[in-house]
Amino acid sequence: MALIEESPLVSCEWLLEHLDDSDVVVVEVGQLNGYETTRARYLAGHIPTALWIDWASELRNPECVGVLEQEMFENLMAAKGIRDTDLVVLYSADNNIWSTSAYWHFRLFGHARTSVLDGGRTRWERLGYPMDSVFPRPPMTAYRSAGVDESIRALRSDVLGSLTTSAFIDAREPEEYRGETFSPSDAPNAMGGQRAGHIPGAVNVPWRLAGNADHTFKRLPELREVFAEANFSANAAVITYCWVGARSAYSWFVLRELMGLRDVRNYDGSWAEYGSSVGAPIEV
């Protein structure tokens, strides 16, 4: 596995030097009532110029379970004042779990100039870099998506049709993988499916294993070791999944963008959908 030539990560040091660039847009991603990140933390202080995107209420489709439609994404970007030519630097607290999920959404809708801030909010604060409480309101733009990249998304039909040909990475906690619980212990909703367990043949690599204590990502040799210890072999197409698609987007980011695997898809329906599907085989 080889690293992609142009890394999707930017350092805190780099961002500090480029905050005033006209084509750099900084976005903090979290949840208003999330079980980890809250909007109150953003309002109390954030990276200067940073916009806010709520993962649950703005990146989830309000009309059905799943991701936004292309027009919805375009309208969201336009309302936030983001141009389709901007370099969007995403960050969050909590090991960048929400920003990597947002990164997957941006790439799904063809926004190529997208990066994640390595270390996220945690490292920025530990470095003592400036914070601001001003809520920016840039003018609306005429955003146009480059199109939907379906090659990075797996649907339930894709999962069921490739149970014996794809490699599955379960990014959840071991107790979820073993079928002892439906969802994260600190999640606001206790149910993640009608049945607990995992997709047959899936390898459990909890998403947090790819991160360091300072919330930066582990480097390539360490990442290889993490997946090797889980007996994962990248000899087939890879599909990542979790509970509702956020942790699996983090693992997708690691596998595809940091480790350079090309055929990696995120199953955003994840266990909330698969575990409730009639006839879908499971293992515990």
Automatic annotation (TrEMBL):
One of its GO terms (molecular function) is transferase activity. It catalyses: thiosulfate + hydrogen cyanide = thiocyanate + sulfite + 2 H(+). Keywords: Repeat, Transferase. The keyword Repeat applies. PROSITE patterns: RHODANESE_2 (PS00683), RHODANESE_3 (PS50206). InterPro entries: Rhodanese-like_dom (IPR001763), Rhodanese-like_dom_sf (IPR036873), Thiosulfate_sulfurtransferase (IPR051126), Thiosulphate_STrfase_CS (IPR001307). The keyword tRNA-binding does not apply. Residues 38-133, 168-283 form the Rhodanese domain. Transmembrane segments: none annotated. Gene3D superfamilies: Rhodanese-like domain (3.40.250.10). This is Sulfurtransferase. It comes from Nocardia aurea.
